[in-house]
Design goal:
Blueprint: H1 2-24, E1 29-31, E2 39-41, E3 45-47, E4 51-53, H2 63-92, H3 100-127, E5 136-137, H4 139-160
Antiparallel strand pairs: 1-2, 1-5, 2-3, 3-4
Length: about 160
Amino acid sequence: MLIVLAFIILFHVASAILLFVSTIHNAWWIVSPPGGAVIYSDLWYSCNATCYPVEKSHTADAAYLQAVQATMILATILCCVGFFVFILQLFRLKQGERFVFTAIIQLLASLCVMIAASIYTAQGDTFHADSLKTGSYGSSYILAWVSFPMTLLSGLMYLVLRKRK
């Protein structure tokens, strides 16, 4: 049982790290113009040698971008809260009970990641500047999609897991 708990804790921490990196790192969109410097764009800034805010990111035109920002932050917060709830439930639950509340929090985090990555996939052209539309998806975008099944599996593992001696 101790090995299973250690695996679940490591899996949860790994998915939280993936969520943090994908939310913070500036490589959601990469543009490498011929003969020019590579431009990395994330949810807040576009950077090459210097960083500048994403154009129109605070207007109604960028509502999709704001939805991606909000859901990725919410997913990261929910994943961290889920870990602390799991630790609390580990010491407070009676023997034989399931970690249902932790599972619900993880499944909500998974849903938020899926929503954010789906919106970014479908509406990425609407909030990129014209000079950045020729790029491709970056590593942070891929990490967001990788963290989706990890948080989903983590939530499902918590649903199955029972507290034993």
